[in-house]
Design goal:
The complex is a heterodimer of chains A (about 180) and B (about 575). By secondary structure, chain A is an alpha+beta fold. Chain A has six helices and nine strands. Chain A has helices spanning about 20-30, 55-70, 95-100, 105-110, 130-140, 165-175, and strands at about 5-15, 35-40, 45-55, 75-80, 85-95, 115-120, 125-130, 150, 155-160. In chain A, the strands form two sheets. In chain A, strands 5, 6, 7, 8 and 9 form a five-stranded antiparallel sheet that branches. In chain A, strands 2-3-1-4 form a four-stranded antiparallel sheet, covered by helices on one side. Chain B is an alpha/beta fold. Chain B has three domains: about 5-190, 3-Layer(aba) Sandwich (Rossmann fold); about 205-360, TPP-binding domain (Rossmann fold, 3-Layer(aba) Sandwich), CATH 3.40.50.1220; about 380-555, Rossmann fold, CATH 3.40.50.970. The model of chain B has no long low-confidence stretch (mean pLDDT about 95). The chains are: A alpha+beta (about 180), B alpha/beta (about 575). The interface of A and B includes residues 28, 61 and 62 of A.
C-alpha cells in the first residue's frame, strides 16, 4: 500500500505522561512523527494532539487504534490532507543590516505575506504562517542572504467534517 | 475481629476521616476486597508497610524473595481466581524488578495493581537514593500508571486503578506514591470507580454484526472455532460450550484459552499454533469459516500471515478494538465482551452438526498420534519423556489440577498433554514467554485456589531464574507441587539450534546443582527419579502429600517437541518430525 500524509487528531484528558504513551506507540512500530503539536481544544480541559505521519493507511489505522486504547485518550481520528485545513508557522531571525543592504529581502517579505514581528539594531524577526511548501520556499529565498535562526512549528489543522467529541462526552455523563 | 466488609462500611460511614496516606492505601485495598498482597519492603514504601503491620489480621502480606516473584505470584493469584492481583515494592530497584511481571501481565491481559514507593516529592528529579522514573519505565508495559504526590489523591486514584485493571481487556496498573504522600494526612472517603469518561471498557455488541456472524455460521460447511483467553476473562465458558454443542463446530484453543472448554469434550479438537496439534493447524487452511473468540492472532498462532486461512471468511469476537484487523482482517468483527456477545448470538444460530468435517480432525489426530503422541505418551525407548510425566500427573490428579508452567519445551508438552475439567486451570506465561514465571505464579495460584491441587511444571532453566521463591513456599507452607523436568539443557533453544543452526549448541548445556538437596535446604520434601518404573509412584507420592513437595524427573536430554511450525512458515506446513 502506498505511503501518504495523514494528520492524526487526538482528543485527550490533560494528563502528565500521556505524550510519552502516545510517542511510544510510534517508537514501538518504528514510525517517524513528522510533526507534533499539543494544545488545548475547543472543549474545556480537553487537550488536542495533532500528529502528522507519512505512512500507509493500514498503519495509520493501527496506530489510531493503539492511541485510542490509552485510557486517557477520549478519541482519535485520522484524515488526509484533502480532508483538513492545515497550517504551520515559522520564524526567521535575520541580521538588520541586510534589510538595507539587500533590497531583494523586502520583496521576499512582501511576496511571502510574512510579518515583521520585531526589529532591533542587530536583527529583525519575520513570522510566516502557511503551508509547509510556502514556508520552505521562503526559507530557500532567504537562505542565500543568511538566516541567523529558523524555526518551524508542527502542523495544526481543523477538519472539514465534524469531530463529535462533545456528544461523546455527553453520552458518558448520561449513562 | 470485625470482617473486612464491616471495616469498609465503618470507614465509609465515618466520611472524611483524617488518616495518613499510608493508612489510606490500606483502606483502599480493603475497600476493593483485597485480602492478600505480595511484595517486598524498602525505604520509600516503609510507611505503608508500617500500616500493613497494624492491619495484618485483615490484609495478609506475603514476602516473596524478589519483587519479580511478587508480580508473578499476583498474576498466578489473579489468573486462577479472576480477582485483581496486588504486588508492592519500594522505589528504585524494587520498582524496576516489577517490570518483567508488568510486561507479562500486559501481554497476557492479567488484572494486576502494583504499588511502588517513591522518593519524597521535593527530591523527585534529583537522582536521590533509590530514585528511578518508574512511571516512564513502566509506561509501555502498563494499561495505565500514575504517580501520586499528594495524599488527597489516593482514594480516587486507587479506585481508578482497580477499575482499569479489571475492566474491559484487563491489564496491569502501576501506582507510584511519593513518600511524603504516605506521611501526609487526608480526609479519607472512598468511592468505587464506575467509569472513566475517556475509556469505554465494554463496547456493546452490534446487533447487525451479530446477525452477519450468525448468517455466516448458519451457512458454513466447514466452520471452525479458535478460542482464546477472552472466553475465560469474559466468563463465557458456558456460552462457548453451548455454541459448540448447538452447532457441532470443532473448537481449538490458543495456549491461554486452554481449560476454557474441558479437554475431553468431543468437539475440543486441540491446540493451535507453533507446537499445537496437527489437525487444528492444517485444517485452519481448509475451513470455510474461522470463528475467532477472544484471541488475538498472535504470530505463534498464525505462522505466516500471508498464508493464514486465506480461503476462509473470518469472524472475530473481541473486546479490544485495537485487536480488530491488527494481524488478520476480519470479514465480520463483533466488538464486545465474549459472554455478552455469545449470549446474543446463540438465539440466532441454527442447530447443526458437521460430522464429515469433524472426522477430518479425527483423521489428522490419528496421523499425529502415530508419529508423535504415541512416542511421547507411550515411549518404548529407555529415557523418560516429558509427555509421560504429564500423563502420570493427569492420572494422579484425576485430570483436575491447576497446572502452572514456565516457558519452553516442558510448557509446550504440558499444554499439549495436560487434561482439564474446569476453567482457569492452566496458568502459563503465553505472550511474553517469561522464564521464571512458574514457581512464583504457582504460589499465587495455590493461594487463590486453596482447595485445588496446584502443580508447577518447570524446566531446569526457568526454575533457576526464580528458585529463591522456595523460601516463600517454605515460610508460608504453601502446598504447591513442583515438578522440574530436567533435561540439563535449555531445551527449546537447543531444539532450534539442532534444527535451524546446524547443531551449534551455543550456551544451552546446563550443569545443574543437586536440586533435591536445594529443595531440602529449604525444608521441602524432595525426590528425584530417572526410571520409568519409579515415575508413577513418585508422582502419586507427591500428590498424596499435603505439604509443598519437589519432584525432579530426569528426562531424555535431547528430545524435541513436535509437531512444529517452523518460524515464518504456514500453519499448513506444520512438521510432524
Amino acid at each position: 500500500m502506498e505511503k501518504r500524509w495523514f494528520t492524526i487528531s487526538v482528543y485527550t484528558e490533560n494528563n502528565i505522561g500521556l505524550l510519552n504513551r502516545i510517542s511510544d506507540i510510534f517508537l514501538k512500530r518504528h514510525i517517524n512523527i513528522e510533526s507534533l503539536n499539543v494544545s488545548k481544544s475547543e472543549i474545556e480541559h480537553v487537550s488536542k494532539f495533532t500528529i502528522v505521519v507519512n505512512t500507509t493507511e493500514t498503519w495509520t489505522q493501527k496506530i489510531v487504534g493503539q492511541i485510542e486504547k490509552q485510557i486517557d485518550v477520549i478519541k482519535a481520528f485520522y484524515h488526509t490532507d484533502e480532508e483538513t485545513i492545515y497550517q504551520q508557522s515559522a520564524m526567521f531571525k535575520i541580521a538588520s543590516h541586510l534589510l538595507f543592504d539587500e533590497p531583494q529581502i523586502q520583496n521576499i517579505i512582501a511576496e511571502s505575506k510574512s510579518k515583521i514581528v520585531t526589529v532591533s539594531r542587530e536583527y529583525f524577526v519575520l513570522a510566516k504562517t502557511g503551508r509547509k511548501h510556502e514556508i520552505d520556499e521562503m526559507h530557500d529565498n532567504l537562505e542565500p542572504f543568511g538566516i541567523m535562526q529558523f524555526v518551524r512549528s508542527g502542523r495544526i489543522s481543523v477538519t472539514k467534517a465534524e469531530m463529535p467529541i462533545t456528544s461523546m462526552l455527553n453520552e458518558f455523563y448520561q449513562t | 475481629m470485625e470482617t473486612l466488609k464491616e471495616t469498609t462500611k465503618k470507614k465509609n460511614q465515618k466520611a472524611a476521616l483524617k488518616i495518613t496516606g499510608a493508612e489510606a492505601i490500606i483502606h483502599c485495598l480493603l475497600a476493593e476486597g483485597v485480602d492478600l498482597i505480595y511484595g517486598y519492603p524498602g525505604g520509600a514504601i516503609m510507611p505503608v508497610y508500617d500500616e500493613l503491620y497494624k492491619f495484618q489480621d485483615k490484609l495478609q502480606h506475603i514476602l516473596t524473595r524478589h519483587e519479580q516473584g511478587a508480580t508473578h505470584a499476583a498474576q498466578g493469584y489473579a489468573r486462577v481466581s479472576g480477582r485483581v492481583g496486588v504486588a508492592m515494592a519500594t522505589s528504585g530497584p524494587g520498582a524496576t524488578n516489577l517490570v518483567t511481571g508488568l510486561a507479562d501481565a500486559q501481554i497476557d491481559s492479567t488484572p494486576m495493581v502494583c504499588i511502588t514507593g517513591q522518593v519524597p516529592r521535593h527530591l523527585l528529579g534529583s537522582d536521590a537514593f533509590q530514585e528511578t522514573d518508574i512511571i516512564g519505565i513502566s509506561m509501555p508495559v502498563t494499561k495505565w500508571n500514575f504517580q501520586i504526590t499528594k495524599a488527597s489523591e489516593i482514594p480516587e486514584i486507587m479506585a481508578k486503578a482497580f477499575f482499569i485493571a479489571k475492566s474491559g481487556r484487563p491489564g496491569p496498573v502501576l501506582i507510584d506514591i511519593t513518600k511524603n504522600a504516605q506521611f501526609e494526612e487526608l480526609d479519607f472517603e472512598y468511592k468505587h470507580c464506575t467509569g472513566v469518561r475517556s475509556y469505554n471498557p465494554r463496547p456493546k455488541p452490534d446487533t447487525k454484526k451479530l446477525e452477519q456472524a450468525a448468517a455466516l455460521i448458519n451457512n458454513a460447511k466447514k466452520p471452525y472455532i479458535v478460542f482464546g483467553q477472552g472466553v475465560i476473562l469474559g466468563q463465557a465458558e458456558e456460552q462457548l460450550k453451548e455454541l459448540v454443542e448447538k452447532t457441532g463446530i470443532p473448537a481449538a484453543w490458543t495456549i491461554l484459552g486452554l481449560s476454557a472448554l474441558a479437554t475431553d469434550h468431543p468437539l475440543n479438537v486441540g491446540m493451535v499454533g507453533m507446537h499445537g496439534n496437527y489437525g487444528p493447524n492444517v485444517l485452519t487452511n481448509e475451513c470455510d469459516l474461522l470463528i475467532a473468540i477472544g484471541m488475538r492472532f498472535d504470530d505463534r498462532v498464525t505462522g505466516n500471515l500471508d498464508t493464514y486461512a486465506k480461503q476462509a471468511k473470518i469472524i472475530h469476537f473481541e473486546i479490544d478494538p485495537a485487536e480488530i484487523n491488527k494481524n488478520v482482517k476480519a470479514d465480520v468483527a463483533v466488538l464486545g465482551d465474549a459472554r455478552e456477545s455469545l449470549e446474543l448470538l446463540l438465539p440466532m444460530i441454527d442447530s447443526n452438526s458437521h460430522e464429515d468435517w469433524l472426522a477430518k480432525f479425527a483423521e489428522k489426530y490419528e496421523e499425529e498420534f502415530k508419529t508423535v503422541i504415541k512416542n511421547d505418551l507411550h515411549p518404548t525407548k529407555d529415557g523418560l519423556t516429558m509427555g509421560e510425566v504429564i500423563k502420570e500427573i493427569n492420572n494422579a490428579t484425576n485430570n483436575d489440577a491447576v497446572i502452572v508452567t514456565d516457558v519452553g519445551q516442558h510448557q509446550m508438552i504440558t499444554c499439549r498433554y495436560a487434561r482439564f475439567k474446569q476453567s482457569k486451570s492452566n496458568i502459563t506465561s503465553g505472550g511474553l514467554g517469561t522464564m521464571g514465571f512458574a514457581l512464583p505464579a504457582a504460589i499465587g495460584a495455590k493461594m487463590g485456589a486453596e482447595q485445588r491441587e496446584v502443580v508447577a511444571i518447570i524446566g531446569d532453566g526457568g526454575y533457576q531464574m526464580t528458585i529463591q521463591e522456595l523460601a516463600t513456599i517454605y515460610q508460608n507452607n504453601t502446598a504447591v507441587k513442583i515438578v522440574v523436568l530436567n533435561n540439563e539443557h535449555l531445551g527449546m533453544v537447543r531444539q532450534w539450534q539442532e534444527l535451524f543452526f546446524d547443531k551449534r549448541y551455543a550456551s544451552t548445556v546446563m550443569t545443574n546443582p543437586d536440586f533435591v538437596k536445594i529443595a531440602e535446604g529449604y525444608h521441602i520434601e524432595a525426590r528425584s527419579v530417572n526410571k520409568r518404573e519409579d515415575l508413577a509412584d513418585a508422582v502419586s507420592q507427591m500428590i498424596a502429600s499435603d505439604k509443598p513437595y519437589f519432584l525432579e524427573v530426569k528426562v531424555e536430554k535431547e528430545d524435541n517437541v513436535f509437531p512444529m511450525i517452523p518460524s515464518g512458515a504456514s500453519v499448513s506446513d506444520i512438521r510432524l518430525k
